[in-house]
Amino acid sequence: MVNGAPGSAWASLRSIDDDAVVLGSAADDERMPLTPAHLFDLASLTKTFTTVAVLRLVDAGLLGLDEPVRSFVPVGSEADGVTLRQLLTHTSGLPAEGRMWRTGLTGEELRSAVLRSPLVASAGSVHRYSDVGFIAVGEIVERVSGRALDAHVAEIAGVLGASSVTWQPSADLAVATERQPHRGLVRGEVHDELAHALGRPAGHAGLFGTVEDVAALARMIRDDGVGAGGRVLSADGIRLMTTPAATADAGYGQALGLRVRDAAWMGGADAVGHTGFTGTAFAVSRSGAFGVLLTNRVHPTREGTDLSAARREFFSFLG
Question: What is the pLDDT of residue 79?
Fold first, then answer.
């Protein structure tokens, strides 16, 4: 446990002091202390970077939020009406997970099978958090632009000032995640099993970054789309990312790519943000304050590692 949270590593940054605090070590059997340069598996924070990438294409007039995406990517079976807005708000009707990796499928065969996952609800009818939907968003970015997803994210990271963001971290700088029966200690490789089996950058998980990298993303959202190196998104794009377009059964609002007022981990804060399964999170309040908390809560195991209380305590300053 590091500072009351599961795992061996804790890195945080709050806008009220804007200095990174790092505690612990990169693995539970490693004595060298953590540094601000260590890279965390950001898990589903990847979805936020993917959202920014696709909204840049919307800003450029290359995509419409409400046009069917099937002309770009064969999403789902009998899913002609699924739109980009629905993918970004988890209302597409696609399943939460692409479980085909459990059958041994990998690479392009797995990618094709996941994208063609049949809908489990009619498009637009319910909110269901979906990794599959964001894999489709990543594919749309690539097919509309003709460029790889990691190239887009690298470009965005450069304008944000998030220079360490990568899908291919050095194992020496990567923070360890889980000890898995089939993979051993996961370090320097994506923890998410589906992303690992795909074997290529995907829109739902797989990015690594430092606490300063995620803080750069939070500042851009706070500053209406302007990053350290210039404008990343239009003000309208930021409005779409911060204004609820759907409501989850758990009660939080769902904007494009971000959750709004998710009390389960934001407490009472009027804020937007996202979490990642590995133990990552960031939130930006309406007042302009923001916080980033990165842990490796699944190290060495995901069992019994609820981080909700620690997150609420950390983000309480936003309220």
Answer: 57
